Structure formats: C-alpha cells, structure tokens
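Example for tutorial group B:
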C-alpha cells in the first residue's frame, strides 16, 4: 500500500509568529500519526527557516511552494533549488493552478522546474487539474493528459520515485465546492492509468496521487478512502491545527 501524504499549502498566509505556532501545533499533534502517514507543510519562502526550526526533531517535513530552475543569476524575485535546499526544504509544489492561471506558467516552465527539482534530489509535487469550463465541456481527461505529458517530459522512470502528483480541479480550490469522492476517484484512476501507459505498472503503483480542492475535516475520510487517492494537498484547512490535524488523522484511519 502507498503511504499517505497529507500536505499543507499555506499559500501567502500567516505571519512568522502565526506560522511558527501553527507548525509547532501540527508537529505536536501529529507525533503519533507520522509513524503511519507523511506530513508536509509548505509555508511562504521567508518562513522556511523558522518553520524548519519549529519542527526540528519531528517527522514533519517542510517544503516550498515554487522554485526557479536556474541555480543563481539575474532573476529578480526568484528562489533557486540550491537556496531551498540550504534552508531545509525537502519538497517543492510545482504547477499549482495559481502558478498556472494567475502567474501564467506553462507546462514547459513547470517541466524545467520538475526536472531541476528531481536533479537536486528534492521531491516534486506536480499539480494538475482542469478549469470549470473544461470540466463542463468534458475535457478533464484531455487537460490532465496534456499537463502530465508536459510536466513530466524527460522525467525517467527512476526519477518518478521522487514525484508526487496532486489532482486539483481548479473549480474546487478555495471555493468550498469539493469534487465528490467518485469524481476524484475517476480522475485519479485516469492519472494512474496514464502513469502505467507512459511508464510501467510498477511506477503507476508506486506513485502517490493526492487530491486537493476544499479538503476539510468533514470530507477528508471519504476522499482518502478512494482506492486511487493517496493523500491530500490542503489549502485553507491547513492554516489551523484544529482543521489540519483531523485531516491527518483521517489519513491514519484509512491507512489502518
Ligand atoms: O494547494 C492547495 C489547493 O489549492 C487547495 O486549496 P483549498 O484547500 O483552500 O481549496
């Protein structure tokens, strides 16, 4: 069985103090759970160092929300993987729908970041997902295929060991409108089959596919108990331990 990953994407939220307290509360509240599930928190860049210190000695992992693929140079406002490694990030969220649709990142941009993230030995959490209009026009699978093909171009089967896929239907992000467990399962099953045809049954079986989009304590267990859902990428509900810890616990429950 694939080990569940419950990841929190804090986006551009919290102060340093709030983030540090939140990280400590998550680490304390998940100390038993991390024996069974992986827990990852992704704070804003400036807080990576204090958050990493706040969870030191625990199994909570810390990741970034984006990166640049170049090591250094004249890239104002960007952050390299070397810098992220230096401050203790072990994962990077890539291709999040806000990066795609607010900041105009293309599949080719995302692919460069995925390749460099893997080369540097960090885990890449590659987000894919369709817009509402695409879903309404029956284009979900076409969009997912395009984003998988583009994002994973030149990624070897061996390197896939450090890739996590996150299916996030854009219409479900921050809207309170969650995909039904059946909708999530259908997309995840499609992604698993894509991995099998592009790589192998082994890669498809081993790769974790997270669901993201309005995951809350009251729907986490139903979503996580779908056969092809291997965890959650949580936005709003990862901003309080009162909401995030029960989602982690739901992961523990469905794992046992
Ligand atoms: O990365 C997380 C997703 O964008 C989901 O956000 P949300 O849980 O606030 O809908």
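The residue assignment follows.
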């Amino acid at each position: 069985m694939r080990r569940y990953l419950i990841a929190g994407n804090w986006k551009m939220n919290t102060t340093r103090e709030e983030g540090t307290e939140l990280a400590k509360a998550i680490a304390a509240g998940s100390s038993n759970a991390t024996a069974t599930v992986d827990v990852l928190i992704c704070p804003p860049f400036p807080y990576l160092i204090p958050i990493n210190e706040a969870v030191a000695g625990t199994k909570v992992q810390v990741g970034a929300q984006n990166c640049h693929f170049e090591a250094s140079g004249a890239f104002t406002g960007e952050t390299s993987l070397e810098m992220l490694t230096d401050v203790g990030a072990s994962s990077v969220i890539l291709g999040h729908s806000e990066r795609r649709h607010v900041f105009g990142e293309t599949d080719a941009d995302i692919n460069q970041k995925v390749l460099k993230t893997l080369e540097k030995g960090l885990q890449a959490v590659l987000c894919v997902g369709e817009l509402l209009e695409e879903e309404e026009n029956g284009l979900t699978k076409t969009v997912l295929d395009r984003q998988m093909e583009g994002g994973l171009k030149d990624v070897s089967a061996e390197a896939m060991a450090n890739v996590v896929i996150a299916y996030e239907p854009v219409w479900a992000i921050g809207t309170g409108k969650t995909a039904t467990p059946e909708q999530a399962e259908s997309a995840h099953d499609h992604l698993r089959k894509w991995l099998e045809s592009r790589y192998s049954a082994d890669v498809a079986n081993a790769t974790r596919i997270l669901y993201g989009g309005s995951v809350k304590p009251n729907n986490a267990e139903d979503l996580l108990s779908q056969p092809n859902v291997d965890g959650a990428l949580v936005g709003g509900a990862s901003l309080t331990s009162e909401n995030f810890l029960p989602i982690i616990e739901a992961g523990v429950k469905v794992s046992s």
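The first helix runs from residue 16 to 29. Compare this with the pattern of hydrophobic and polar residues in the output above.
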